[in-house]
Design a protein that fits this description.
Oligomer: heterodimer
Radius of gyration of chain B: 45 Å
Shape of chain A: globular
Number of domains of chain B: 3
Largest interface: A-B, 50 and 43 residues
Structural class of chain A: mainly alpha
CATH architecture of the largest domain in chain A: Orthogonal Bundle
Largest sheet of chain B: 4 strands, antiparallel
Radius of gyration of chain A: 18 Å
Number of domains of chain A: 2
Shape of chain B: rod-shaped
Number of strands of chain B: 8
Number of helices of chain B: 6
Helix content of chain A: over 70%
CATH superfamily of the largest domain in chain A: RNA polymerase sigma factor, region 2, helix turn helix motif
């Protein structure tokens, strides 16, 4: 099968909507690594990250109808599908149970011995934020807590949580450029 | 609304990264429609984020691609049914299953009916084509027959009956001596089938010399079988020759007829 090197975004979306196999190949080749990077930062463990990437692609494939070009780029939509799948995974009962056994897990012990081994991408970038801002991004983006949950947990007003998260995100953006 | 302030408020980042509340999302989407510069700023951040994440990408294990592809293929096929089972409350699954089964049976029935009807239609069409070609063939044959009869009726032809030993005519030569081309026709009557490696050949005789008039096919659709022309002839003869004929007769004629 010959895969085109590049597609215009609308062409690609049309191909995915028609469930063309070449579109899957293209999506996977171009975006799976970017999505996997984010998934891995949320989920941590490699095997579960594999599961999440699979769920993410199945959802991308099945729910492409709900993607709306007017609301943003295809990658943004895929990223949020992948992020939501990752958050669902760490919120699942099975994951929470397995987390209790973490101290017995060699890999995690190793990570705590060598902190920063997984710090790349967005996580590396939020390390440059102030502690408070980093915590808010970590809780909201990487752990999927709602603003309300964060407000309750940190004993700060909901409005303040919102403002601080927004200002942390603006900082993050500045770091990208 | 102060668009510039709104753009730099962090709402764009919050929206794109999926951290905005439902109300904020709706408001932001409406603002994007109304103010193109907000949509542009959103695209700019989306692109920056995309570039950043593509740069920080980590390849997934290579075996995953085929596994996911397989999963997607089967999920494309089963999507509808699975969604019913996954998303409907438990109590209603029975009803949905029943409905799904009923519609499946209905659908299978319609498909079956469509296939059968289509098969019948195909058969009728084939039959129709066959009849049509038969009619065409018959018409063509009829036309040929009429042409031949016209020739016999309207052209004064010289005839020569080539008879076998029991006086039954093997064939009759019709020689159109009026037309300048002097066409020769042969009507086959009782010519027996020759051995499989032999063929009959028609000759004209002029001053004792045979002139080849062509090979004879015993089985003829036409009443008058067109042979080679000959300008002058005193008699006609048929010999048995090897398949394809000979330049000169190699056997004695089985029939000779003087004009």
């Amino acid at each position: 099968m010959v895969t085109k090197l590049t597609y215009e975004e609308h062409e690609l979306v049309a191909l995915v909507r028609n469930k063309e196999e070449e579109a899957f190949g293209y999506l996977y080749e171009h975006y799976s690594a970017a999505l996997y990077g984010v998934i891995k930062q949320i989920v941590g463990e490699a095997e579960l990250s594999n599961d999440v990437l699979q769920e993410a692609f199945v959802n991308i494939w099945r729910r492409i109808e709900s993607y709306d070009e007017n609301k943003g780029r295809l990658f943004t939509w895929m990223l949020n599908v992948a992020k939501n799948a990752a958050i669902d995974k760490i919120r699942s009962k099975g994951f929470r149970q397995s987390q209790r056994q973490i101290p017995l897990d060699g890999e995690v012990i190793q990570a705590s011995v060598r902190p920063g081994i997984d710090d790349y991408g967005l996580k590396r970038m939020i390390l440059k934020l102030k502690d408070e801002q980093r915590l808010l991004i970590d809780l909201s983006y990487f752990q999927g807590y709602s603003h309300e949950q964060i407000a309750t947990a940190l004993h700060i007003p909901l409005g303040t949580v919102k403002t601080r998260i927004r200002s942390a995100l603006t900082q993050l953006r500045a770091l990208m450029q | 609304m102060n668009v510039r302030e709104y753009i730099s408020s962090g709402i764009i980042e919050s929206y794109v990264m999926g951290l905005a509340s439902e109300t904020e999302r709706q408001e932001f989407e409406a603002n994007c429609m109304q103010y193109p510069e907000i949509a542009e700023a959103r695209t700019a951040f989306e692109t920056a984020l995309e570039d950043q994440l593509l740069k920080d990408a980590i390849s997934a294990p290579s075996f995953l691609k085929a596994q996911i592809q397989e999963k997607i293929k089967s999920s494309t096929n089963e999507a509808t049914i699975t969604e019913f089972e996954e998303e409907r409350p438990t109590r209603r699954i029975g009803a949905w299953r029943w409905l799904a089964a009923a519609s499946f049976i209905l659908m299978a029935g319609s498909v079956y009916w469509a296939i059968i009807t289509n098969k019948k239609y195909q058969a009728l069409q084939a039959k129709n084509r066959e009849l049509q070609s038969q009619v065409q063939q018959s018409t063509a044959q009829g036309n040929e027959m009429r042409d031949d009869l016209d020739k016999l009726r309207n052209h004064p032809m010289k005839t020569a009956a080539l008879k076998g030993e029991d006086d039954h005519a093997y064939a009759i030569v019709y020689w159109d001596t009026v037309s300048s081309s002097r066409d020769v026709y042969l009507m086959i009557n009782n010519l027996p089938q020759p051995a499989s490696d032999k063929q009959y050949q028609l000759w004209a005789l002029l001053n004792g010399q045979p002139i080849d008039l062509g090979m004879i096919e015993v089985k003829q659709q036409r009443l008058l079988y067109r042979m080679k022309n000959v300008q002058n002839a005193q008699a006609f003869a048929i010999t048995v020759e090897p398949q394809g004929g000979s330049p000169k007769p190699t056997t004695s004629p089985i029939a000779v007829s003087n004009l």
